Amino acid sequence: MGIDAIHGFEGKTPDEIKDIKEIMADRAAFMGNITLSYNQGEEEAVFDAIKKIQHIFTGGRYIFSSDGSCFPDTINNLIQIYSYFHSFWEE
Question: N or C: which end of the chain has fewer CB within 10 A?
Answer without folding.
Answer: N
